[in-house]
Design brief:
It is a single chain. This protein is an alpha/beta fold. Helices cover about 20% and strands about 30% of the residues. It is built from nine helices and 28 strands. The protein has an eight-stranded parallel beta barrel, surrounded by five helices. Strands 1, 2, 3, 20, 21, 24 and 27 form a seven-stranded mixed beta sheet that branches. Helix 7 links the parallel strand 14 and strand 15. Helix 7 packs parallel to helix 8. The structure holds alpha-L-arabinofuranose (AHR). The site of alpha-L-arabinofuranose (AHR) has 10 residues, from loops.
Length: about 500
Amino acid sequence: MKSKLLVATLFGVGLSFGCVSEQHDVTLTANLKETGPLLHKDIYGQFAEHLGRGIYEGIYVGPDSDIPNTKGFRNDVLNALRAIKVPLVRWPGGCFADEYHWRDGIGDPDKRPVKVNTHWGGVEETNAVGTHEIFDFIELLGADAYINGNLGSGSVREMAEWVEYMTSDKNSTLANERRKNGREEPWDIAYFGIGNESWGCGGHMSPEYYVDLYNQYATFIKTPPGKKPKLVGSGGHTEDTEWTDVLSANIERNISGISYHFYTLPNSDWQNKGHATEFNNDDWFATMERTYRMDDYLKANIAKLDKNDPEGKIGLYVDEWGTWYDPEPGREPGFLYQQNTLRDAVVTAVNFNLFNKYAERVHMTNIAQMVNVLQAMVLTDGADMLVTPTYHVFGMYKVFQDATAIPFTIDSDVYQHGEKQLPAVTASLAKGTDGHVYLALVNLDPENEASIALNFSNANFSKLTGELLTHDAITAKNTFKQKEVVKPAAFTTSLNDLTLPAKSVLVGRLQ
Ligand code: AHR
């Protein structure tokens, strides 16, 4: 047990400074009669871009492939993703979105133009997966669609017509073209993005210039009653808050949320990001420190929204987040393929706990990306596939989809590394749609376990039952030879003796 020299409540997290010991003390305090915001299911969304082997090979092999598939989509990958209840898929990019012309991806696949994917490896883009195919995939998954429009190199007309093609129930030429191409009923689009990273690959614009374009493009997005997607403005990234500020102060047309991107690079250096699987405790801390910046960055962006939108109408959508490491030697660097370890699992849980903490504004996020790209759920190798440690955390947290947050404070010892420190433990607490109360805990510290005390009022729980994900090695990973090195184990404990192992993620039901 540690002595606490000083406890300061910082944004709901109490930090005790200057302690060295082998067990962290953590106290979570909550009144179970209180309720917080909805933890929208779309907080657990995923991103699938035309990038590397993300779409082709990763999810789509074509109907003639020897790999078992449904309408060309791999059955093994579909089944794995169904099991974690993916609520939302963002497509077609990313940077790719601002060079995507939707007409290239409809009609006879053999007659579709072959383009060059200029952003990602300069490879040929056959357009075999276009609008109809991606909606097939999303429907097979049972998810919702987040379609990202092309503001950077498209036109107002092109974007307006794409939305009409997808959503019109009229006898219009565009709606009839969709019917001729095999789809009678209009599709539902849950979210529609007006450009992506317009400060960079989406056109190198200023936020002021983008505001005018947003107002113009949004004016012409017209849908039948009840079919209007939530419109997403392309926002800022990392420590920048200017985009959130300028967009939320000046956009006059309908907007549901402003996007925000933040990637976890262990070295915080785009030229030398860090290795995916070979790292030590220093790299582990650096990764946790970088990912935990999400806390300050969300807070800073939300402060801008609170100033310009006190009624809370505009959401902050973290529609790209996750780890980004150096490319694997011997692989095409533009494909952004990387392995995934226990460290990625802990990063995932840290971010989920932050998204849940700020769920008043954070209604939707998308991890980058779903399969074979960056912090993926699934990796494939020909006909083979595996699920990653990150995948398992998505599976464990699915009980929080559409749950109602229960406000809490957490008084946690620190994870001390040299002169630097982070909270050792962070958490989520919520009432699930099934009426049960769920608790998630993550221990960021790779060396010290944590003793957890639950100081709950209006509750009568004695047990926690769920799953625990951890491993002896910080670099533990699943490979095509050993696919189940990192996977959750069943966990049940009395609340009198709740101990969270070092470097672990726990999600359980209170009983
Ligand atoms: O996710 C990879 C890329 O990262 C996306 O295409 C882009 O939006 C971001 O810079």
